[in-house]
Specification:
single chain; 366 residues; mainly alpha; two-stranded antiparallel sheet; two-stranded antiparallel ribbon; 8 strands
């Protein structure tokens, strides 16, 4: 099973590392390493050099980690490979955090040296018809398909309940060997369908958050910005619907394997390839859209001199904390997508409630 481990590592983490390396070229042109700037400053020679330095630094760091991981996997028993991959993931996260923090600090220092006339623009553009005049997301009615798959899977599990073995295989290692079993019961058999329903709820909530997230438009060219931002939300909403269906189908496949057991290799391959498909689709979306729809359509036609100077609300360029902002969801400054406003009590209630649902469903399904 060594080839499956290598396939999983390469297919999952090479695209992920590539997206991290290219992060400065995917964010909005009014943000550089988590620091607000004007588009004119973004395209200046010093920041061009800084972005190239980031690419080289992260390429070397992630490349060394990947090579070291592959080398270690060649020289350890197969049962130790999960530990090697887990260690690689941890080191990748640490390396990314250190690199981002280093360049965030460097960018803050550089911004402090800029002439005052490049820093005194702070303009906010708002389109009052943004949500009513644009189709921003795919309707949550699409998730009726996901729900139908979950209901059909539960119905088949009940119809063929007698064919399911008395002892269920619940957990596997990287070699496809069973590491945990459980006695057959309606709870263990239908637990997968409960998790499907929880996942559908999470994906629907994500879709809703895309719709309700704070609009961020360019004052230099509001009309173009509206078109790009609307397309950006629609594309990620479409991805959200597709990713949710893939995960629901994966759980149905696992449940089907309870009734008609498949070979170990087929089970492992499908279980790994479906999450990898989601990751690859996410990377394609990131490079084709950019943050806020930056890479959609032609070049920006505005003057590029206006921007929102709200760095005081962004801690380390990543964490948004603004009690005065009623928005619960805002665009990330580093990376693609959205984050939450940790300065609002509603955000904490939302996160705690979501975590509680996941924990309770997991305890019931086990």
């Amino acid at each position: 099973m060594y080839w499956i481990s290598v396939l999983f590592l390469m297919a999952m983490f090479v695209p992920l590392s590539l997206s991290l390396i290219c992060m400065p070229y995917l964010t909005r042109e009014t943000v550089s390493f988590g620091v607000s700037i004007s588009e004119a400053v973004y395209h200046s020679d010093p920041l061009r050099r800084m972005r190239r330095q980031y690419v080289w630094s992260s390429s070397v760091a992630y490349g060394v980690l990947l090579i070291a991981c592959l080398f270690a996997m060649l020289n350890v028993p197969e049962e130790q490979q999960p530990t090697i991959i887990s260690g690689f993931v941890l080191l990748l996260i640490i390396a990314s955090a250190v690199i981002n923090l280093t360049f965030y600090t460097k960018m803050k220092r550089y911004k402090a040296t800029l002439p005052p006339e490049t820093l005194n623009h702070s303009v906010v553009a708002v389109d009052t018809s943004f949500r009513s005049g644009n189709k921003l997301i795919w309707s949550n009615k699409w998730f009726l398909i996901h729900g139908a798959v979950a209901v059909i899977s539960a119905g088949l599990a009940l119809a063929y309940y007698d064919k399911i073995p008395d002892t269920l295989n619940m957990k596997f290692n990287w070699q496809g060997e069973v590491t945990r079993t459980a006695a057959k019961s309606y709870r263990t058999v239908l637990g997968l369908n409960l998790m499907q329903l929880v996942m559908i709820g999470i994906f629907m909530t994500t879709n809703w958050s895309i719709l309700r997230s704070k609009q961020q438009l360019s004052p230099a060219d509001p009309q173009q910005s509206v078109r790009r931002n609307a397309a950006f939300r629609r594309r990620w909403s479409m991805f959200n619907v597709a990713a949710g269906l893939i995960m629901v189908l994966l759980f149905s496949f696992i449940q089907y394997n309870m009734i008609y057991p498949l070979s170990r290799d087929v089970m492992m391959l499908v279980s790994l390839m479906m999450p990898i498909l989601i990751v690859v689709l996410a990377i394609v979306m990131a490079f084709s859209t950019g943050q806020g729809g930056r890479r959609i359509g032609g070049p920006t036609s505005g003057s590029g001199n206006t921007y929102v100077n709200d760095d005081r609300y962004w801690k380390l360029g990543n964490i948004y904390f603004n009690p005065q902002d009623p928005a619960l969801f805002v665009e990330k400054r580093m990376g693609i997508g959205w984050t939450v406003n940790f300065g609002r009590p509603g955000t904490w209630m939302f996160l705690i409630g979501l975590l509680a649902v996941i924990i309770i469903a997991s305890l019931i399904a086990i």
